[in-house]
Amino acid sequence: MAIEKPLFMKILSRTDIKARLSIPTKKKRCFLNFQNRHQVEFKVKDENGKDWVFCCSIRKKKGYRKPVLSKGWLPFVRCWKLEIGDVVRVYRMMDKDGKEYYRIEVIKRRDSPLVRNHDAEEPSALAVASYGDVEEEAYEVGGEFLMNA
User: Fold this and answer.
1) What's residue 16's pLDDT?
2) What angle do CA 57, 64, 134 make, to 5 degrees?
3) What are the residue boundaries of the TF-B3 domain, all occurrences included (predicted)?
4) How far apart are CA 139 and CA 123, in angstroms?
5) pTM, whole model, 2 decimals?
6) What kind and span of H or E run contains 79?
7) Would you call 17 exposed, middle or buried from its count of C-beta atoms within 10 A (0-12, 13-18, 19+)?
């Protein structure tokens, strides 16, 4: 049986589905090891068992070094028909042999247990709450604050 560690979850914004996924990070620290590089590729397995290769990058200049997924992300968005308000969760997995890999889960907004105001055009990020190494984003939509259930 695999051991699963939640890394982050994100309610997708317009930018996330049209250009790149901005990864929520605690204190701008990413779960990936960049080893003094500005980008790193990593494999993620989706719920159907398909492997995806994403490129995660940070800006070379100091300052705002928030990590983003670019290469490989938009084909994933198209394949899963992701929309604004859908949720992605990323997990670090370890199989019984000790091999580590990443898993991505998609929750379509129509299936999401989150309460939504459908009059709102797009959720806006409010905060990132951390519990140890696990991060969750809270959003304000139509005056209500949303987090994953």
Assistant:
1) 96
2) 70
3) 6-110
4) 6
5) 0.70
6) helix 73-80
7) buried
Long-range contacts (CB closer than 8 Å, 24 or more residues apart) made by 58-66:
58/30, 58/34, 65/28, 66/22, 66/23, 66/25, 66/28
Q: Which residues contact 3 (CB under 8 A, 6 or more apart)?
A: 93, 94
Q: What is the structure's pLDDT at 144?
A: 38
Using DSSP's 3-state secondary structure scheme, residue 99 falls into: coil
Tokens of 66: 């928030």
- Domain ranges across the chain: 3-110
Positions in the chain whose pLDDT score sits under 70: 26-29, 61-64, 111-149
pLDDT at 136: 45
- 35: number of Cβ within 10 Å: 6
